[in-house]
Structures are given as C-alpha cells and as structure tokens.
Amino acid sequence: MRPRPANIARPITAPPAFGAELSSASRSLAGIAKFAGLYALAIVPLAMGATFTRNFDFVKTMQLRGTGVLIIAAVSALLVLSPWLTHKGDSVASGPLPSIPRRDIAPFFAVSAVAIVGSASTLFSFLPWVSFVGGHLRNFGLLTEVALAVIAAAIVVAVRQRGAPAVRHILDVTLVVATAASLHLVAYSFDLDPISAIYGGRDARGPVPGTTFGNTGFYGTFLVFATLAALARARSIGANRNSRGASLSILTGGVLTFAAFIGIAWLGADVYTGWWALPIVGFIPVLFAIAGRVPLPRSWSERADRWVFVGIALSQILIALFARSRSAWIALAVGIIVAVLVLIDHRRVRLTISATVFAFATYTLVALAAVVPSSPIAWMNDAPVLGPVLRLAGGRLSMEGRVQIWRDVLSAVTSDVSGEASASGITNPRALVGYGNGTMLVVLDRFWSFERHEAESARIDRAHNEFLDRLFSTGILGLAAWVALLGVAAGAIMRLLRVAKPDERWIAGFLAGAFAANIVSDMFTPGDPTSRLITWTLVAVAIGYRPGAVDIQTIAASATPARLSLGSRTRQRSRGRAAPSELAVIPVWWRHRAVVSGIGVCAFAWISAFIGIRIGYLSDYGIPYALSAIVSVASIMGLAWLSFDTPPRFGHLDRLALTGFLIVASALFWWAIRPGEADIYNKESIRSVFGDTPAFGVVFARKAVEISPREELYYTTLGSAYGEIAKRAPGGPVTLPVGNRLDQAVRMPIENMARLTGADFIELARASFQRASDLNPYDSVHQANLELLAKIESDIASRPAAAPFSTTPSIFAPRP
What we know:
The protein is built from 34 helices and 4 strands.
C-alpha cells in the first residue's frame, strides 16, 4: 500500500485571489455566502408584488418609484461591476472591491442586472417589448434587499482577505453603500421612493415627507457607521502615511456639512418642511472620503483622527435632535450608551455620559407618554413649566397609534379570517407562515378596531415594527430566521469585543453602538430599504471582520513551507482553530454552491407555486405571495450552515432535507396564494374602471370577491365599476328579479347583464357599497360612496329610456 504524500504547501508569490482565504475565515465566508445567496435569490419573486397594494395611480406611481429603484440598482451594479471591469490577473484591482474573476462575479452582477432591467421597464413601459419583458418585474420593494444581501456577502469576502489593501477596499465599499443610502433618501425627498412614501405627500409647495426621515435617517446610525468605517480606514493606512487622507477629507466634508445644514435650515421657512434634505447633508463627508486623495500633513496624528470622528458623530447627533423624531432619539441614546460602555474605561466619565444620555432617553419617553390623552401623566403636558419643556420634543400623537397598530397586527397573526379558507373548511396556519409580503394594507383592514381608528385613521401597510412586520409577512418561521441572524451578528460583535486590541476597540465600540441603535430603531419604525441597508451592512461587517489584520503580502514574503503546512500538528497547536498564518484555498466549485443552492430554492418555489395556483388570467402574478415560507425555510437553513467550521458537503441527506422542507412549505402556502391572486384581480379592475372600460372592471372585481369574500376593498371596487356603467346605461325602471341584490351583484351570469338599465346597475352598486360598509363600518369612504350613488341615481331617473345596453355586445365578455 503506497504511503499518502505529506501536505506540502506551495510557495506564495502573489496576493491570493478571490477565494484564497485564511482557513479561519472559511466558516464565516461559506456561511454568509450561502445565507446571502439563498436569502437573496429566494426573495427575488417576492419583490414582484411587494408594493402593488399601496397605490392606485399605477402608471405614474410605478414610473416614479422605478426611477428611485433605478438609482439604487445602478449604484449596486457599480459596486459589483467595478472590480469585474478592472480585473488584472490575480492582483488586487483598484476599485471598491478586491479583484474577483469574471466568472465568479457573474451571479452577483446578474442580480443587479435584474434590478436595472426591471426598473427600466417601468420607465419605458410604453414600448411593447419592454412591457413584455418587465411585466413580472414592476415591483421592487424587496428587490433592494436582494442587492443588499449580495453586497453584504461581498463585504464579508473582502473583509476576510485581511490584507491592508483589502481592508481599504472594504471600507470603500462601506462608504459607497452609505452613499447608496443617501441616494435612496434623495429619491425619497423627491417622491421617488421605491417602496412608496407612506408618510409622504404633496401640497401646493411640493413634496412633503414625514417622520420616516427621522426614523431611518437621523437616529445616528448612518454617520456613526460611516465614522466606524473612516476610523478603521485611518488605521489601515497607518503604515503608509502618504496614501489617501480619509480623515482630512472627512474633516473638510464636515465643514461643508455644517454650512449646508445652516443653508437648508435658513431656506426651511420657504422650502417645504425645512429639513427634507437633511439626509443629504450627513453624507457630504462620506462623499469626500470616497473621492478625497489629499495626502495627510506631517502634523496629522492618530489623535486628530479620533477627534475628527467624534466631532462628525456629534454633528450627526445634532442633526438627529433637529429632526425631532422621538423614537430616533431613543435608538440613538441606546447606541451611545452601548458605545460608551465599550470604549471608555474611566469609570466616572463612563457613568457621567451614560447618566446624561439615559436622562435624555427618559425625557423622550415621558414626552411620548405625556401626549397620549389616556396616559396617567397626561397632565404634565399642560403643566406651567414642565409642559413647554416636554413639548420641545414634538406633540405628534404617534405612540398611541403605533400601540394600536401593533395590537391589530397581533390580532391578525393569531386569527384566521381568510374567506377562501373558511369556505373550504381548512384553517390557514397564519401564525406559522404569515400572510405574505405586501398584503398588510388589505388584510389589516379586517381588524380595523375603533381604538386604532381614533389614533391612526390612515390605512396601514407596515406595522412600524420590523419584528412584527416579519411576523405578519413570514410568520413564526420568518421571524425566527431574522432573530437568529441578528443573534449571529450580536455574537460576532461580542467576540470582537473580547479579542480586539486596544487600538481596535474604537471599531468594536462603534459597531456595537450602531448595531444596538439599529435594533432599537427597528422596534418603532417601518421597515424600508434604508433600515435594511444598515442592518445588512452591519451584519456583514460584524461577521466578516477580524481584529489584527495582517498584510497578506507580508505573510507571503516571510512564509515557509513549515509555517504554511496544513498538517495535523499545526491544527493541534491551535486547539481546533486554524493558525493565523495558515492558508487554505477554498475550491472554485464551493464559491458557486451558494448561488446554485439559491437558484434551486428559487426554481422549486416557482414551480410548486405555479402548480398549486389555479390557472387563470392573472394567476402568474399571484406567485410572489406564495413564497414567504420558502424564504423563511431557506433563511433557517442558511443560518444552520453558519455553524459549520468548514464548507460542508451537500450530500444526499441534505438534498432530501431541502426537498422535504420545500414540499412542506409549498403545501402550507397553497392557501396563501389566493389572496395575492385576488389582490391582482382587484388592481386590474381598478385599471379598467379608470381606463374607461368599467365592464371589464366588473369581471375582475367579481373574481377578487369570489376568492376573498370578506375583503371590503374588493366590494368597493365592484361598486365603483357598477356605478361607472350606470352613468352610461339607458334609463328605465329597475328590471332586476326579486332576490338578494348582493348575490346578484356577485354571481349573476355576465350575459344576463347585457340588457340591464341604469337603475339596475345602481342597485347592484348600492348592494356592493353596503356590503363594504358592513365589513368595515369605521371607514367613512363607504358612506360617501353611497351618497354619491344617490346623486347618480337622480340623474338616471331623468334620463329617457333608450336602446338596451347590449348595443355593445362584447362589453361584458371576459378579456381573452
């Protein structure tokens, strides 16, 4: 028997390319790559229908939001495409990412290409072929999260390179990602938000965004995170003082930040609300840090770096205070306390700062509670001295409304009110798999409590709590996956705090504070691409960053075969962990495994959903709502892969487990498909009514009602379609047979409507509006519709009888 050859490492003469990682990096790299690939690729179909439930002005809305998404998609594509174009052999190319071979970057570029193509299809939908190609890609609320997951995986890969050039590149990525967030907020300020401006609107002076800016852009995480990146960047260039001076660039940007802030505040009296453009201000120093190539002066020291970073962070705190977002203040206070406890060793200083910030958080909580009329401390708001002080925090009654929203969301999760389920006698496991992404606007109206109507009369499409949003959309499975991901990131930060060197504790401290602020903010704010961008990037850096980065070129130059050996003795010395100088090359096939697995999950989800759905005119549009459980299962499996110390083998047992999970998920999700299909029918009905073909609107609205007979919105749409037809129908008395008018409106054969009079359609519209009012008696729009119908009825009564409506014989024919 021939003896096995000993492990002999090859000498290294050049920096390793993408995939040539330290062996201690294999677990994080493989786990996060597979997790991001599964999560990103499995969530793509969900993105198609996420925002359709929020707007009725389809053409204008999708074009506007498509522009905003196009901006973000272009930035994401630039991040991915830059190293792909600048690739030069195996060397580290210039650009935001380390050098990546073209064949490895192709899957990531494909995801960004989907976002760009889909966004462009909304801008040029008047072209037939563009409309055909982009017909399934019109909604991109969650597609932004796809790009963020991919960028997060790339961040981990870059950070794990551990070389000084790679560290600089990853910090460039961090800053560019922050710039992408600023572009999103710029788009939002001009009413180009890709997930729709839920608190925004327009008045005579232009767009007026609401407190979403304060919730997502002013609680300090943005610039604290940028400060973290700049601090780490300054540390990485410490060995070469002639390289790019990020600190000086940020200082220059900070001066311009102050000037721009003063300018915008001065214009605030006449331009919109006064602080609508403040998110742009916070990123001026970041933009300068990206483009700045100013060499550091000889007098510049590391102490000056730290003071610059602290000053920038304080300026962001000042901006947060001006925003007067009280929930943002609480998140910011938590982040500051966490950072102070980590960074400051002096007991008195730590106690003083923590007590001050805690007192400020307490003041904010009291101010929130004092504006609630039923609160036991409501009297404070009218006190002679205390009242004006509390009112400085703002008087908007937001907390009471959010509490009522949370209560209704929990009622929806723990109840089963879907009409299609009750009709068949099968109970939907909503608490387990959720209702599906993008359905809260429709579903939550079934739980319109009187208390919520008094506190928050608007229709709700997000729970103002990221955890409840996950619970509502993806059920317990999805919430567990999300919490597990946050737990993994928190554990990584705790490990970083334990092993960080003194000069790296600033990085760990800012990272811990930003992460804590983000978690607290998610408890009060609606989820959107901005907050998800922060979360994904923080998680990526937390999992990927390791203290004590060593220049790979130095290791390669001084390495010997004995030190680079991967034999058992070296592993024994490291007690199960790879030695710092060991190198292990991850095979090329493994780097594609995350992508292949994600494509498999996505393909199986599409096939199972398509088989499970009823074949109908718009059945393919209902597919996105069938995949929340698929995403949840994929996320859980991705988190399980994080526990492997080395890239696991995907054997037959793993394939069977994955297939079983998907089969069970598709079976559970069969009953979640139909509400999505009904919602799309309702959208087509509204399009037909406003598109001067109300008869087609009747056809589609009746299909929606048939699927979800307890949805008041669908009856409103059906009544509107009947009312529009009544305006054009001939006069004459009511000719409908005696019977239940609602049953006739929903189930009367289409061909029997051809000879109805205007009075007949008025009766059908009245029955539909009345049913909608019965389902939701708190919505005043139903009573307004009935009053408007009475005016149309008086006009029809004076109209002379004419030829029957069947003079247009195909008016009630279903669209082919």
